[in-house]
Inverse folding.
DNA sequence: CGTGACTCTTTAGAGC
DNA sequence: GCTCTAAAGAGTCACG
């Protein structure tokens, strides 16, 4: 019997798809089983799935995504006391690298002079003023753990977004490269 | 090294899920390939997927679904010239089976008397009148191929849905049984 | 204050989207409410949604979709006793319209000669034979209500799909027209 | 005319749903328009949607979610140079609040003694050692901007997850409270 | 081809 | 502990 007829071919297509759908169903059940096990071990499956999503990105993609989120968060005043990460600061300063050697290198000053305590509002004002003075976001003077650090960030970003300039290039996302095998 | 620690267990869960997700991705690509092949062979993938869905139902479920669709279509005047199927007629008469032996058996009369030609509007009126006379939907006098057959159905169903009665039981879907291995 | 700055524009976009999402949420709740009401009135919401989908199609699209489903069903032997509709027969014969005036017109013969009773297997064989004799699917001799009618269809379609021909054109879906305002 | 009949009620349900679907379609188009506008203004819509999602959470939910993500990230060695946030440290120390007054208050020491420069590997080892010494994650000695800060976190978290203990309570998500109007 | 929307399946949460 | 409901995710389809 030749396969070259409509009926047999249709049957073939239908059955091959059904087989694969069946296998997929089995895999989905396997995933559910693992999640059940993880849950009863005390893990949070939603967070686990988020980790899996992040592991699927290249490190560069991951950093860019998180940097943009932090930038937008700071601009919208949603930092909630969490200062921006160094990666985000670096990301925001990447276009100035020709000016100074820049970003990450001089971002860490091992012996900062102690900054006097500042209220959130004061720190916000200082951040805004720092932007107006041409300072970069990497120059936030407050150390980790200081609640003023996040406020300064919000002030700086808010001011950076307020002075009538167009969207600066670091707000834009890098176009995806051809990403050859970076899923490892 | 004992597996009984949070870090190793977390890693394990993450990797097991990732493996399965990877397999699932492969299967999805296989399905897509088959669809591409079917499409270029001239088949309509949407219809193929519909067939697969229907093959996954038991025959009873399939018939009930189609009967309900036809019933609603007739009531909404959307038959477009397609008379209801015998299955749907039978489905709609299932609650009267105690009255008469019923439905399918006497639905087919091999020697019907010829019905004089009727316009759609006339046939619709006759269907409505038939309902009022207590006739069942299985008693549509027009033969297959007669355009009046669908119109009679619409008239009957419309009248059946119009006389202030509550929703009759055959409009309701049968509750799903525990369905033990009925996917054959 | 000028709106021409990043921060204010970002806020604006965010809030406008949030407003619309909020409205959409309200609408979705409205839909859910109606479905709840319909369900408690005894209707089947899945069927209702199907009707809405069909009402959104033009009559021609609707008929083509259903015809293709019936054709595939017949080929796969899934008619379950439901003969194909006249629309589907017409659809399958549309490419022969030049031969004879065609399809619907002569599909209904008000005085068919009575066909002797046939078992499903016999009817199936007769359908296949009819195809081989060059008969069209519109010439199914069994009347509505006769269980043999569907079997004849299955036989005819199965044979039509089995003779090594390529997929006939009526299996293919018509390309969508520009459909200008046909949603009425 | 009484509405108390099947046909009219079905029509009513169908049309009411259709109306709402139509409105929803309009809203979706509005959202698309705004996104198009935002995109051409240089914003990243994906990030905007993420911000909207976060704005819909209460601050407590947002912080817990991000803390758990950071904790898992640290355990899986995915910090990529971004130290954990103070919120996450606080979250992880919340069950020790009875021991010492705790967490946020003493987390910020305005005059830390300068820490000698450390390589990532050294810092990781110091973090692990710190955990074994009973130190809390809030006691990371490296300042913001120091690349060693994140490494110390990874070491600490990794060790915390490795010592055969059961999942500590702070890994678990807080059960959702009845949340009466906390979306502000 | 890539994005968005809609449906449906699965999963998490609440109540008995 | 189990069921039921509501929400989230994945998949598919259509549009630009």
């Amino acid at each position: 019997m030749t396969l070259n007829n409509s009926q047999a071919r249709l049957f073939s297509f239908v059955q091959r798809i059904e087989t694969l759908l069946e296998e997929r169903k089995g895999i989905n059940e396997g995933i559910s089983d693992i999640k059940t096990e993880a849950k009863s071990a005390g893990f949070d499956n939603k967070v686990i799935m988020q980790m899996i999503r992040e592991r699927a990105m290249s490190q560069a993609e991951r950093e860019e995504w998180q940097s943009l989120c932090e930038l937008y968060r700071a601009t919208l005043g949603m930092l909630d006391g969490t200062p921006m990460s160094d990666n985000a600061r670096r990301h925001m300063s990447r276009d100035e690298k020709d000016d100074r050697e820049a970003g990450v290198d001089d971002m860490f000053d091992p012996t900062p002079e102690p900054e006097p305590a500042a209220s959130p509002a004061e720190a916000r004002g200082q951040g805004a003023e720092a932007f107006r003075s041409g300072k970069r976001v990497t120059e936030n003077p407050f150390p980790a753990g200081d609640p003023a650090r996040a406020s300064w960030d919000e002030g700086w970003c808010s001011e950076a977004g307020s002075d009538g300039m167009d969207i600066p290039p670091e707000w834009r996302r890098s176009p995806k490269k051809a990403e050859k095998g970076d899923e490892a």
User: Anything to note?
Assistant: Residues 97-104, 178-184 of chain D have pLDDT under 50 and may be disordered. Residues 106 and 132 of chain D are 20 Å apart (CA to CA). Chain D touches chain C at residues 9-10, 13-14, 16-18, 20-21, 23-24, 27-28, 30-31, 34-35, 37-38, 41, 43, 48-49, 51-52, 55 (CB under 8 Å). Residues 25, 28, 31-32, 35, 175-176 of chain D lie near DNA strand E (CB under 10 Å from a C1').
